[in-house]
């Protein structure tokens, strides 16, 4: 590919509908925030009486959404951008497997970071507990000795164990949010630089894209045992990143070149990192937690079937959307 094709400049204002684009920013922002907050608000507001099965279905549907985001949205995009001829001969011809290296390292680093965070939270909280329980009563002593023999499928009664599970869940959801949010920026960016009929089809696709991911993330945040304020706060980065990407696309529309080597390498590497995070989060944390949690009873047959169908539904919906965004 010639150097000129790799540095082709953006659009002129005559081809670009600015008011429509600005309207699109607000549409995507509202959809992202509302869908992400939906589960949190429904779960914490006593006025809403949503059957628990609805949460169950949305939770597993969300697992399918995030899994497909990793494998069908981010992974191919990571390889396509880094092996684009404009990204350079080394990446496109000499070493086309380079994206795999970053994805692999990203997952491994996440494993290390998660283990380290869990270690720190566990030990700081355990120290606090030890301080507050420095003079335990006979009752608590006997309770404590009982927890040493807690059966694997019984609910944990050990505060240290609870803290460890909680911190692990928080870290998992944060990792998922990071992966999803990074992808949202680039989805927003492609919408912000779209023009003509492409804009409308992309706007609809991105609206569903953000809606599905918002639901998936929101239900995970709503399940965390943290204050509602922090759940709402955690929704905000997701709500604003796609619009941020759109705003960057709008601002840089005249100079933006999706084929420039710098853009390709930057987006490609960030996509690789997000892919590694999401694959790690789904396979190591989410699926194991939902189906093989050693501290909870295994799902009953009907529930397992319902969860599997919900996951497949999420996979299909998000995979179909990959054709557009
Ligand atoms: Zn996508």
From TrEMBL:
Residue ranges spanning the membrane: these are 20-41, 53-75, 95-117, 170-192, 198-217, 229-251, 263-283, 304-324
InterPro entries referenced in this protein's UniProt entry, alphabetically = ZIP (IPR003689)
Task: Report which residue ranges the record marks as coiled coil.
Answer: none
Does Transmembrane appear among the keywords? Answer: yes
Region (Disordered) location: 133-160
* GO terms, molecular function: zinc ion transmembrane transporter activity
The membrane-topology field of this record reads: Multi-pass membrane protein
Locate the compositionally biased regions of type Polar residues.
133-156
Q: Where in the cell is it found?
A: Membrane
Species of the source: Tortispora caseinolytica NRRL Y-17796
Q: Which UniProt keywords apply?
A: Membrane, Transmembrane, Transmembrane helix
Q: What is this protein called?
A: Zinc/iron permease
Where does the source fall among the domains of life? Answer: Eukaryota
Does Membrane appear among the keywords?
yes
Q: Where is it predominantly found?
A: membrane
What cellular component GO annotations does this protein have? plasma membrane
PANTHER family, A to Z: PROTEIN ZNTC-RELATED (PTHR11040:SF44), ZINC/IRON TRANSPORTER (PTHR11040)
